[in-house]
Specification:
370 residues, alpha/beta, Rossmann fold, six-stranded parallel β-sheet, 43% helix, Diacylglyc_glucosyltr_N, hexosyltransferase activity, glycosyltransferase
Length: 370
């Protein structure tokens, strides 16, 4: 792999675990090519308490007030006619500390893997306050407007279609990097047999039901019962939500798990993933050759991303219980439908990777519109 050499400051965010997973894989690839990296949580660059408050609000809304989060997403993230509220006041609060960090670390490139960080770097670059190039690695299929700022020098996106849309929106270079997923998900899993024995199922194909690191989403027990009634062995991933783990354990005929470190092995032992967030878990499943079906998605970016994934042909979207069962029946059985979906998803891992970042290490300055 030809990765660029240089010093890279990566801005992530502790909103669940997906952004940190992307940051870790980005750092691994850059370091494999001789680069040096440091990863910082952009929420920690906000004034004391602000980052924690933002994370708590988001987590609480996702768990207990999804309609509130849907409204926030519609107002602040989705494109629309006329003036729209933005994140500029929040981004401004992180600028001073980021500039201090840049003076301290002296990176050659700053790379954002969270949309708030992209707004901070874009604003600073547009004013000339940030004197090193800034790139944005978009982790979402739903490329909402908070990811976009014309001050940033370069964008990495999951697919070519998404990159084309970003290029039109900000008139900056945008490339299809593909999904930044750890290589262990793309390799055979030695522990798959252990997981098959552990899950049992007595001939009922195991189907994972994911709720993300925070164990978020509604109707998880209902989804597990539906999957079981259709003849499958539901395996519910509750993340770090112990309360959800207890609730589903009592209410649903499922194998219920908390946070799982060996996701490659578990995925290799499963026939499909029922996902509600269109995030990193879905991409890891695709890397492992496991079909993904979006169902009962969380609002905002979760639903928007799930719809875009389905439009791109890499996953299925089930708008209701009947559609979920039909999708499971089609995608868990050996045959053309399963193979087509797995093949389409595999294309997400054949992109440019981190190679486009090489252009930002050149001393020529800012790039053209591409």
């Amino acid at each position: 792999m030809n990765a660029p050499q240089g010093r890279f400051l990566i801005l992530s965010a502790g909103m669940g675990s997906g952004h940190h997973a992307v940051a870790a894989e980005l750092a691994r690839r850059l370091e494999a090519g001789g680069g040096r990296t440091r990863t910082v949580d952009v929420l920690g660059l906000l004034p004391p308490g602000a980052g924690r408050g933002l994370r708590t609000f988001y987590r609480t809304a996702i768990h207990h007030a999804p309609a509130v989060y849907a409204g926030v997403y519609a107002a602040f993230f989705r494109a629309g006619e006329g003036p729209r509220p933005g994140s500029a006041p929040l981004a401004a609060l992180a600028e001073r500390r980021l500039l201090g960090l840049v003076r301290q670390e002296r990176p050659d490139v700053v790379v954002s893997v969270f949309h708030l960080a992209a707004q901070v770097t874009g604003r600073l670059r547009a004013r000339g306050a940030l004197t090193v190039p800034s790139a944005v690695a978009v982790t979402d299929f739903a490329v909402h407007r908070q990811w976009l700022h014309p001050g940033n020098d370069l964008y990495l996106c999951l697919t070519q279609d998404l990159a084309d849309g970003v290029r039109r929106a900000v008139r900056r270079p945008a490339y299809a990097s593909g999904a930044l997923v750890a290589p262990r998900f793309l390799a055979p899993a030695d522990t798959a047999g252990d997981w098959r024995r552990r899950l049992g199922g007595r001939g009922r194909p195991p189907v994972l039901i994911s709720t993300g690191a925070w164990g978020a989403g509604g109707g998880v027990g209902k989804t597990a019962r539906l999957v079981a009634s259709a003849g499958y062995r539901p395996v519910v991933l509750c993340g770090r939500n112990d309360r959800l783990l207890r609730e589903v354990s009592r209410a649903a005929p499922a194998h219920v798990l908390g946070w799982v470190e060996d996701m490659p092995g578990l995925l290799a032992a499963s026939r499909a993933l029922v996902d509600n967030a269109a995030g990193q878990t879905a991409l890891e499943a695709m890397a492992a050759g496991v079909p993904v079906i979006s169902f009962r998605t969380i609002p905002g970016h979760g639903k928007a991303g799930a719809l875009t994934m389905a439009e791109q042909g890499v996953s299925a979207y089930a708008p209701g219980p009947g559609a979920l069962v039909r999708a499971l029946d089609a995608l868990t059985r050996p045959g053309p439908a399963r193979e087509r979906r797995i093949s389409a998803a595999a294309g997400l891992f054949a992109g440019e990777g981190v190679r486009p970042l090489e252009a930002l290490l050149r001393p020529a300055g800012r790039l053209g519109a591409g």
